[in-house]
Amino acid sequence: MLHLLSGPSFSCSYFIAILLASHMLLREQWIRAKYERNEFEFIEKQEPYSAGYREGFLWKRGRDNGQFLSRKFILSEREGALKYFNKQDARDPKAVMKVETLNATFQPAKIGNPCGLQITYLKDNSTRNIFVYHSDAKEMVDWFNAIRAARFHYLQVAFPGASDEELVPKLTRNFMKEGFMEKTGPKHTEGFKKRWFTMDDRRLMYFKDPLDAYARGEVFIGSKENSYTVLAGLPPSTQGYHWNHGITIVTPERKFLFACETEAEQRDWIAAFQRVINRPMRPQEYAVEAHFKHKP
Prior knowledge:
CATH architecture of the largest domain: Roll
Radius of gyration: 20 Å
Strand content: 25-35%
Helix content: 25-40%
Structural class: alpha+beta
Low-confidence stretches: 1-22
Strand order of the largest sheet: 4-3-2-1-7-6-5
Number of strands: 14
CATH class of the largest domain: Mainly Beta
CATH superfamily of the largest domain: Pleckstrin-homology domain (PH domain)/Phosphotyrosine-binding domain (PTB)
Largest sheet: 7 strands, antiparallel
Shape: globular
CATH topology of the largest domain: PH-domain like
């Protein structure tokens, strides 16, 4: 589907199989691309999302008022950034999102639109969420593919020795788990508060509302070799929680206490944490851990 990924060393169908594995919208557009628009047969038809530049309007959720308003977006592979503008004729962008930390994942249920896309990037080492949609499914999928294409080109430069098959999983990612839990503060004497949690690889973020632009706090989850552990339950002296299924995350600095509403949710969260903790840390993740800014 992307001519930049075709060739003897890379299977285009392999790329598409990974791309479409988890989302019906993407699957439908893949079928239309193959059988209606003949994009596999005619490479020039892939240009709208693989040319390294894309410009258009998306409905973006306001950071403070929650309203979706039309905003101009520009993705420039040459500049290595995705930008959006509050006004059509504005010269300066409202935000510049570096392709290096850019991620996109479809979130129709969370956003309340079948074409809803959540875009994340790092700003001052903290995650910034942007929620967008478009009424045309093809347009939204083209933006998604354009982001992936820009990420692919960036990764080719950043990891020159890596194969295409090694780079594909790094293009975009779905969150490992999301949902509500209760949490308490660092002293463990504060009352537990209900928060929306998102597990994005080794970043555990919590929000007051699932559509918040910024997390109230972020926790780095390292590996067991570096003294990170997940335990079922809470310390015996813990008070102030309403949900009875506790989880304790042990890090080198402190313990984080959470509570789930059901036993099934507790099992799912522990499994997600365990998958990350059991995975050895890569060299670049040590740098993330060293510079991680935790918000209590």
